[in-house]
Amino acid sequence: MGFDDIPTLSGGFAPVDHEIVRDDLPVEGEIPRDLNGLYVRNGPNRQFAAPGRYHWFDGDGMLHALRFDGGRVQYRNRWVLTPGLLEERAAGQALWPGIKDPPRRDRPDQPHKNTANTDVKFFGGELLAMWYRGGQAWRCSAQDLATSGPLLLPPALADLPISAHSKVDERTGELLFFAYGLTPPYLQHGVLDRRGALTSLVDVPLPGPRLPHDMAVTEHYSILHDLPLFHDAQALAAGRHKLKFHADMPARFGVVPRHGGAPVRWFEASPTYLYHVANAWEESGPAGDEIVMTGTPFRLPRDARGDVDAERLPRLLALLDSDHVFHEWRFNLRTGQTRERVLDDVLNTEFPVINAARLGLPTRYSWHVLMGRSTQPEDPRFCGLARYDLQRGSCQTYHEGPQRWWSEAPFAPRDGAVEEDDGYLVGFVWNDATRQSQACVFDAHDIVQGPLCRITLPQRVPHGFHATWVSAERLARGW
Ligand SMILES: [Fe+2]
């Protein structure tokens, strides 16, 4: 099978070979002069073809960055030089199978290659590239994207399987992370202060190995996920990757004080599986103190009788199909009860972002990727953008037809911004008709009018995962 036969290795997904820097990029419209900082996106970009079956999540991590400075912009891309990729470069060939094939039993240190391809955050003056399956996080220069080494942890914790969706609290500079794996306690929560010192690491024991993808944080707590979709134990023992959804098990959310000092409090909710949280915050009201969490769980597929089709959900995930709702959970710290409601069951959206300076505080707005439904297996479609206003209960969307493929577009505050949505969205878009990648800047307050400017990129930016915005102020401050 050639690359062209695999949707996630062809068209806008196909990997690129070159690492380049360019600052003479054609711009339609005008780049706002009060947009200053770094946009960087992580994603898979396989360097060596491996035998076996390819999955979109397998590719080696590559960062694509745009530096905005007073109306000018520079593009740069670079692989994350993980030890796995360096080993493969030395060998001149792929040495690891993808996630669809059994792991390497001769490499207990790294049964699957840690590609660091999933998310990227700015912490301690550097970028951190991280992997969703959990592994070492890799530090990369915010100047030139060069990989400088692993996130430094005490030696005994060097192999802590840190998940991709660590959070940075921009008000304290802390990195909050969870680590998860196949052995007890299966889940841990940790905090590094802005100088990189570990200030908290607690076990969050689970009944067995789970597949948490994200976590939430508030001002005082982290919320960790124990969801009833996880590895089939027998298949896992045989080295196979098979997921099972347990429609009769509740979802459980563990509330952990950020800096420890109290045991984990578990809240049960209706069975669900979600990749991404939008935000979480603390609220006081007549019903008592609550933690509010919003996110985009899968819409549970139903059979002809209306019952949850537990077999179909893992298949949807495996085929990279998307069908999501926007959802809210409320965990009452006084009663221990959970209340939940659907915020939007009309639009299919994922990859929610907020104004990251307000992570863990009440937020009114979130911006999501509008998801299309796949027309063939393993052909995910990021077909537009959506902006939610939770105060008004309203939503606006922007898309330009089926030939565009957008990307997670983080919120970038305007210089000196005060209001929550006073700024821009910055993201990539691939045009399948012109075979060209562009970066687009939107007014975050009103995406309906379309991009304020379009920057044509010097090469294709393969479809990828998560992105971050680092303001010039944070770059200068170093945290
Ligand atoms: Fe993710």
Architecture overview:
The structure is a single chain. This protein has 479 residues and is mainly β. The chain has one domain: Neuraminidase, CATH 2.120.10.30. Helix content is 6%, strand content 40%. It has four helices and 33 strands. Strands 2, 28, 29, 30, 31 and 32 form a six-stranded antiparallel beta sheet that branches. The longest helix has 9 residues, at 83-91. The protein is globular. The chain starts with 20 loop residues before the first strand and ends with a helix. Fe (ii) ion (FE2) is lined by residues 118, 132, 164-165, 213, 275-276, 465-466. Fe (ii) ion binds at residues 118, 132, 164-165, 213, 275-276, 465-466.
Distance between the termini: 46 Å
Helix/strand class: mainly beta
Return the CATH architecture. Answer: 6 Propeller
- The H-level CATH homologous superfamily, spelled out, is TolB, C-terminal domain
Task: Provide the CATH topology.
Answer: Neuraminidase
Give the number of DSSP strands: 33
How many strands, what sense, and barrel or not for the largest sheet? Answer: 6 strands, antiparallel
Helix content: under 10%
CATH first level: Mainly Beta
Ligand catalogue: fe (ii) ion
Counting structural domains, the number is: 1
How much of the sequence lies in strands comes to 35-45%
Total helices: the number is 4
Which value, in Å, is the CA radius of gyration? 21 Å
Summarize the structure.
With 479 residues, the protein is mainly beta. It has a single domain (3-477), classed as Neuraminidase (6 Propeller). Helix content is 6%, strand content 40%.
